[in-house]
Amino acid sequence: MRTEVHLQFHAVATVVVLGLGWYFELTRGEWALVALAVGLVWSLELVNTAIEAVVNLVSPEYHPLAGRAKDVAAGAVLVGAVAALAVGLLVFGPRIGALLGW
Ligand SMILES: Nc1ncnc2c1ncn2[C@@H]1O[C@H](COP(=O)(O)OP(=O)(O)OP(=O)(O)O)[C@@H](O)[C@H]1O
Questions:
Q1: How far away, in angstroms, is 67 Cα from ligand 1 center?
Q2: How far apart are CA 41 and CA 39, in angstroms?
Q3: ipTM
Q4: Where is the signal peptide (predicted)?
Q5: Domains of the chain: total
Q6: Which is the closest atom of ligand 1 to the Cα of 64?
Q7: What's the pLDDT tens digit per position in 52-77?
Q8: Which of 1, 10, 57, 74 falls 20 to 30 Å from 41 in CA-CA distance?
Q9: 85 is in which domain, residue-wise?
Q10: 10 Å Cβ neighbour count for 64?
Q11: What's the sign of the alpha-carbon dihedral 9, 6, 100, 82?
């Protein structure tokens, strides 16, 4: 957490999402979806950070496979983040829209 900016961002985003969930009084099912989405992104980001550390350890010099490993790990985070965004839009979108009078 102290060294990884991405993890610090996830910590702030998690607090915001939990605050929104409390404010909008999510149902039990919606909380389950939000918990899964938040946990998915956290775990993928932690695995990505671990893979980056291992790659830097074993291949500090340039190597195509080192680059591929980092890119694929970053891609996994991106896929999880898009899924979490979809959950966020489906759960919070209509509520925020109603709040803003859309
Ligand atoms: N040892 C290496 N050999 C080849 N390509 C590398 C190597 N290290 C990094 N790269 C390439 O540079 C990109 C950025 O690498 P970097 O280590 O900064 O990862 P990052 O995902 O940007 O890290 P962070 O999450 O800390 O910002 C990688 O996605 C990869 O394409």
A1: 6
A2: 6
A3: 0.87
A4: none
A5: 1
A6: 4
A7: 999 999 999 999 999 999 999 999 99
A8: 57
A9: 5-99
A10: 8
A11: negative
